[in-house]
Amino acid sequence: MNYDDTVTYLFNCAPPFQQVGGAGYKEGLSTTITLDNHLGNPHRKFRTIHVAGTNGKGSTSHTLAAILQESGYKVGLYTSPHLIDFRERMRVNGIPASKEYVTEFVEKHRAFFEPLSPSFFELTTAMAFNYFAEQEVDIAVIEVGLGGRLDCTNIITPELSIITNISLDHTQFLGSTPASIAKEKAGIIKPGVPVVIGEATDETGPIFRQTATENGSPIFFAQEELPIADASPQGSGFIYHTKDYGTIEGELGGYCQEKNAATILTAVDKLRKAGYRITKEAVRKAFTRVCSLTGLMGRWQKIGESPRIVCDAGHNIGGIKYISKQLKETKCRTLRIVFGMVSDKDISAVLEAMPHKAVYYFTQASIKRAMPSDELQKKGSTFGLTGKSYPTVHQALEAAKNDSEKDDFIFVGGSCFVVADLLAGEK
Questions:
Q1: Residues 7, 12, 18, 20: what is their CA dihedral angle, to the nearest 10 degrees?
Q2: CA distance readout (Å), 263 to 155, 167, 301, 328, 378
Q3: Which residues partner with 237 through β-bridges?
Q4: Cβ contacts of residue 63 below 8 Å, gap of 6+?
Q5: Which value, to the nearest 10 degrees, does the dihedral of the CA atoms of residues 337, 342, 348, 350 take?
Q6: Model confidence over 10-54: pLDDT tens digits?
Q7: This model's pTM is above 0.85
Q8: Measured over all CA atoms, what is the biggest interatomic distance in the chain, rounded to whole angstroms?
């Protein structure tokens, strides 16, 4: 098989959660452990940082990887989902795994893993851990797929655990309250391993503290450490005035990035105290160049001017609340929103939070989980959101562009898969 055939095979033999939803989710670690043993326990051959949380995992993971790269380390980065190419999930110093590696891995181990019927994420995780071991990385930043306690990445014992925040998402698997979700995500806290909490509430904070105490794990809350004195949007990014790193120019411009930055700087402080050689200059450079260093896409990413076009992969109420606030404060003649969601999200909560003073172009991503655009339009109208429906993201965007004047603003989002369809067409 060539690379394209191999990826098609992976999608067909173990359909990814991003395509089919709950049918692609497999709880527990037994299959992952079996795969890992077969591969010679590659996860034990490099150091790791483990990142969980409802929102902000991707930005946090990529920026930490960029900081470690700028500090001279060879860094693996494992994230999900991918937006354009499967190989985005596993990178070393920002470079995706080769097509040859993916093809050869499947051909070599197919006879072993097929009888196991692993999930797509289990197989991908094993592939990534094996790749990082072969590449002899110094350290890998590993993003949790879903939850934490039973996520297949949770076979690692990291140098540092990070939980960014808790919001209601994937409630069918993780529980219907912030406390129940916090308990699942706290499952990445390992005995004696420090943990950084990006954002906690009265409901979730005690759960993190209790779990850390039970494991003898030092726990640090970014809200208490206060590494950032103040932050403000500037251009398409952010300016941070920090306690230890001077002024940092952040490339990422979404309003959520202020909290992510506090989490990242708290984590960096703990890594430095653990002996990692991370200079202040490396931190500043990484924040400024995280996208080019790691390949990060879809975070308040500008893709057009006159009219300005921005996309963002935020897709649940925890992320949308920041996007909605930012859209409401964006100065423009007319706000136009190309918007699609998947059917298994809390669509009503998201639609209720979206700006009313906007023209909507309801659409759907090219995956089975996508809510049909005409259904989304009807549901949106019950929340006072007005606009037409379009069967594809590109048709919706073209309609928005055709309707726009140069000083309008077009936002594309609601689902990371809407952003994926958009960016795939931009390449």
A1: 170
A2: 23, 16, 21, 26, 39
A3: 234
A4: 252, 260, 261, 264, 286, 287, 290, 294
A5: -50
A6: 988 875 544 444 444 556 799 999 999 999 999 999 999 999 998
A7: yes
A8: 59
